[in-house]
Each structure stands twice: as C-alpha cells, then as structure tokens.
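Handout, section 3.2

Students often ask what a structure token actually looks like in practice. Rather than define it abstractly, here is a full record for Gene Transfer Agent NlpC/P60 family peptidase, ORFG14. The first block is the sequence as you would receive it.
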Amino acid sequence: MTDASPVVDAAAIVRAARGWIGTPYHHQASVRGVGTDCLGLVRGVWRELYGADAERPPPYSRDWAEGGGVETMLEAAARHMRPVTDGERAAGDVVVFRIRPGAVAKHAAILSSPMAMIHAMEGATVCEVPLSRWWLRRMAGVFSFPRGDV
C-alpha cells in the first residue's frame, strides 16, 4: 500500500455505506443521493474507497426470483473480494442473497454490524435494517472488501 492509498477498514466501509442512506432506489443506477439499486450501492462504496469501479456490470433484470441463470453477482464478488465464512462475517462485509431456492443470487447489502445491513430495495431508499432470520436464510455468500491496493 502506498502512502497515498486510502485506509480501507470496516469503519471506513460502513461510514461510506451510511453516506448512501436515503438515496432513492433506481434500477442499475449508482449515484449517491440521486439513485441506486443494491449493486449500485456496493459499486458506489467501492468507488468512494478505491477511486474507480472494480468492473462494469452487464445489464441485469430487476427480478430477484430469476432462475436458471449465471451467478454473475457471486462470481464478480469472488473476483474482487475475499470470500469469508458466515461465522466470520463482520461490519464492512458484503452479503449476497438468493431470494428463493434455484434462483440466481441477485441482492446485495453491506453489513454495518454482524446483525445489521445497509441495502437498497425497490420502492424504498437505501436504509439500515436488522439482518433478520428471513435474510439470514437467504445468504448465498459473504465477502470482504480488499484491505490493500486493488
């Protein structure tokens, strides 16, 4: 890590994510205060931390129950972040959710604590909510932001 590199720790990640709270939902957007979806929130926090997008996502549908497709979100998370076991999840980690069995994992959130998350949902704004049993049952992967140069 160079002297000019930002310090990326859990506190910085959560602080950046909380800066998006109140941003309206907008499918495929990623502009703090203007519009974002769940992936846009993760992308926006990444940009704030590292200065650029990790990669540009392909177009995607808003259907959380979409089945039989490619695990684009999980594969991208694994390319750019470190997978962690569920028991190790912590503030600042990204959680990817599969809404129903057989569906593609298509929802993401940033943990503000091991049992709370910040996410964007259609019809609402970015918000911080408990990581309830409903969400815990749907976890498909947990990933940690890189802590060094990317």
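Discussion prompt for tutorial groups: The first helix runs from residue 10 to 18. How would you have guessed this from the sequence alone?
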